[in-house]
Amino acid sequence: MKVRHVIFFTLIIANVVVLLTHWYGWLLLTIPLLVLAAYDVWQKRHTILQIYPVIGHLRYLFESIRPEIQQYFVESNINGRPFNREYRALVYQRAKGETDKRPFGTQFDVYRSGYEWIEHSLSPKAIITDNLTVRFGGDDCQQPYTASPFNISAMSYGALSKNAIMALNKGAKLGGFAHNTGEGGLSPHHLKYGGDLIWQIGTGYFGCRDEAGQFDAQLFAQKASLESVKMIELKLSQGAKPGHGGILPAQKLTEEIAAIRHVPMGQDVLSPMAHSAFSSPTGLLKFIRELRHLSAGKPVGFKFCLGNKCEFFAIAKAMLATNITPDFITVDGSEGGTGAAPIEFTNSVGTPLLDAIIFVDDVLVSLGLREHIKIIASGKIISAFHIAKIIAVGADAVNSARGMMFALGCIQSRSCNTDKCPTGIATQDPSRYRFLDIDEKSQRVCNYHNATMRHLTELLQACAITDLQQLTRQHIKRRINATSSTDYEALHPSQREGCLLKPDTVPVQWATDWHRASAEHW
Predict the structure, then answer these.
(1) What is 129-503's CATH superfamily?
(2) How many whole angstroms separate alpha carbon 298 and alpha carbon 227?
């Protein structure tokens, strides 16, 4: 309904109430509201209306006038970039199967520093969609996995409701892409619909820990053998709170979640800051080899947020010393989201995704190991251009949490840690999450993924690129100032393959950290 229609009918109702001064005049107003409330509770398309009958319509009323308000701010060049809500609106449209086209062309100041674009070709080429897949699994992997380049990032059951987890997994099943479990363990809700899973193991070893909180190899092997589990991701740190450990507030801990995680009730669930199963780079790689063996040869990698570069060089040296390599490395940018973390960590700790991906890619190339290890990027990746850009600078695939949350209906109320999420997504309150319709929301997750992949295909075709691996740093341009621009290859020149293998070819900017690094300690 248009805003003018809402105003028109509101005025009519107001006039009727004023004119009908008898008691049945109020009845004329009350009955339609009761009918509307009944409809809101009965329908399954909008979770907010089910939880907040009648008054929930105010949210959609304000949303309907948002484009005009938003356009003012965009044209005013605040930060020279669109607000996050524009991308949220984009995801909503794609998830709902609505048109996502925009009129009037570019809305940014294209001469403002920081503006970015991808170079197209005057000879576009059709693309075979089978080329838009990524194969995970190195030489020591007996069960390689072929994945979509666009998957669901780590979000635990506990941080999200059971209905949200089931909707995400069913969406992954419908769309043929992967769903990262987050560090909260494997739950029946992850397994119900059979979507492909990346099982994340954090410092708390939730779901594969003994009574003392230590890693339980037998329990891990039992769960890793499940057909739905396609890959194992060992979490070292995450972008929103690197070095801090995960947090599940006590008010969101249910008996079911406690049983799944093997933790006691009545207190915050705090993941340790570091792993107890290993304490050195060499120990990390040996543990990865153990996990690969226990999972019968499934791809195993680790996730981290880049901090001290010397420590990643230490892992690199351990790879050379042990001849053990992970099948993939997930790089989480400091801009990644979370349900709960201190503001100092969310705003001021860790390396941003772009810098981290470029560094990790360059190091693996410099070691001669890049072809054996895939890189997954995670951190505020929502649109097809975001995907193309981060793959161009060094990633093989991307994970999205924020985008998938928007597809579920997240409105960023930022009440994830209070258990009062108004959309039933980030809450364990059954009076809220039961209204999140799994069938409806799973289709939206699938729609969002498929639409974004379709737009990625169109982008590549426009650039005459027929394979994701053909994307390079030269394809992405960035404006430096009003009169000059360059590409990412010029900004971040690629390193020569194998240059770290000889003392006299170590890049100057890495020399100090490289020589300080040791495979035996961080």
Answers:
(1) Aldolase class I (3.20.20.70)
(2) 11
